[in-house]
Amino acid sequence: MSENDMVTEQLADTVDESPLHTVPEPPRLYTMEEAADRLRVSREYLYRLRKSGDLIVVKFGRRVLVESAEIDRVIAAARTAA
């Protein structure tokens, strides 16, 4: 085996062992209207959930947004309550 082949093989082994470094995708944010559409409920119902503390929102200035994970959590909570 030539020196070049050995280096190539060592490099291939190193690449196979190294973990992949991926940048996590930022959370998807929905407007209250989009979140209501996704949940198939009214915006008013979402605002009631927010007021009662059952829906956590993200505020940017005047914009009220809901993370995708929060929508999933609300769905899971409704599933266990049913």
How would you describe the overall organization of this protein?
The chain is an alpha+beta fold and 82 residues long. It has a single domain (23-81), classed as Orthogonal Bundle (Multidrug-efflux Transporter Regulator, Chain: A, Domain 2), CATH 1.10.1660. The protein is 57% helix and 13% strand. It has a three-stranded antiparallel beta sheet. The longest helix is centred in the first third of the chain and has 15 residues, at 3-17. The mean pLDDT is 86.
Compose a concise summary of this entry.
About 55% of the residues lie in helices and about 15% in strands. The protein is α+β, with helices and mostly antiparallel strands and about 80 residues long. Helix 2 (about 30-40) crosses helix 3 (about 45-50).
State the helix count.
4
Helicity level: 55-70%
- What does the overall shape look like? elongated
Number of domains: 1
Average predicted local confidence, pLDDT:
86
Strand order of the largest sheet: 1-3-2
Strand-pairing-aware structural class: alpha+beta
Distance between the termini: 67 Å
**Strand percentage, roughly?**
5-15%
What is the CATH topology assignment? Answer: Multidrug-efflux Transporter Regulator, Chain: A, Domain 2
Secondary-structure arrangement, i.e. CATH architecture: Orthogonal Bundle
Topology order in helix (H) and strand (E) letters: HEHHEEH
Radius of gyration: 23 Å
Largest sheet, if any? 3 strands, antiparallel
- Stretches with pLDDT under 50, minimum 5 residues: none
Quick one: CATH class? Mainly Alpha
